[in-house]
Design a protein that fits this description.
This protein has 298 residues and is α/β, with parallel strands linked by helices. It folds into 2 domains: 85 residues, 3-Layer(aba) Sandwich (Rossmann fold), CATH 3.40.50; 135 residues, Rossmann fold. Helices cover 39% and strands 15% of the residues. The chain contains 10 helices and 10 strands. The protein has a 5-stranded parallel beta sheet. A 3-stranded parallel beta sheet has the order 2-1-3, sandwiched between helices. The longest helix is centred in the N-terminal third of the chain and has 23 residues. The protein is globular, with a radius of gyration of 19 Å. The model has no long low-confidence stretch (mean pLDDT 97). The chain binds NADPH dihydro-nicotinamide-adenine-dinucleotide phosphate (NDP).
Amino acid sequence: MILSGKEVSAAVYSRIESQIASLSEKHSVTPGLAVVLVGEDPASQSYVNSKAKKCEKLGIYSEKHVLDTDTSQADVLALIDTLNNKPEINGILVQSPQPPQIDERAIIDAINPQKDVDCFHPVNVGKMLIGDEDGFVPCTPAGVMEILAHYEIETQGKHAVVLGRSNIVGKPMCALLSRKGKYANCTVTMCHSRTQNLNEICLQADIIIAATGIPEMVRGDMVKDDVVIIDVGINRVDDASDKRGYRLVGDVAFDEVEPKASAITPVPGGVGPMTIAMLLQNTIRAACQQNSIALESL
Ligand code: NDP
């Protein structure tokens, strides 16, 4: 079975649309998202633009703050302070990577945790770890959990192997899969670049979440029959036959692994489309919390 992020994100957007309509009709509230970009990294500009476009389409108020590459740390912090205190803004996202003079950690720490829709602030990371529903869940791992739930993948008691331990993907993925609850309750093994016997560990996995950034590193002989594969990787590899000169591949060799898998996400069209959808879902959650509205009541 192909786990289509396009299909799941469409379901999330349809849920979001009705929540936005209900927020407006019942509470006269319009959710607001501010996206901050320091510098001119073309990929970041493209991400920021697609977030802004999606907001406009759905009726979420959005502000795009594009600052010069040489903007000082103090000026970025001043902007964060303004956005923290702006009632129209419920969520703040600072796009990575940032130029070298910016201390990313200090910028994240300065965001009001209630507006930290990326879930990078230590308060929200802690809340996620203890299962406090008041916090947020980081967008890409939240997207993976949404895919598992949408396709009703049985996870209870399963051995999930997570490849990668980044703060953005690997670590939160392990925390979410090992939580108590439906579409969780996994026994989790977290692997990284120093892991020994990676092939043997992968061969024991019922579920593999691949997030290493290494193109097609998970090969057919590393997985057992009926494995569930979630491929978070998005990698460009040179391809002269493609008019762009490259094609996108995941961290999993799809053609080798797909015949053995019971379910697998493609790249592109798997986890990729989920990230913005979950960011906007978090923005609506933030708007509800800041206006003392129960999300479930919408
Ligand atoms: P990072 O580079 O921050 O982390 C990669 C992780 O993989 C590290 O923990 C690293 O280990 C581990 N790793 C590297 N080599 C190996 C190896 N040979 N075996 C096992 N583990 C290894 O990447 P991210 O977590 O930010 O992203 C991972 C992938 O997901 C990328 O392809 C990225 O493009 C994609 N991505 C996709 C998103 C989406 O929207 N779908 C969003 C975010 C990321 P160590 O810690 O030891 O260095």
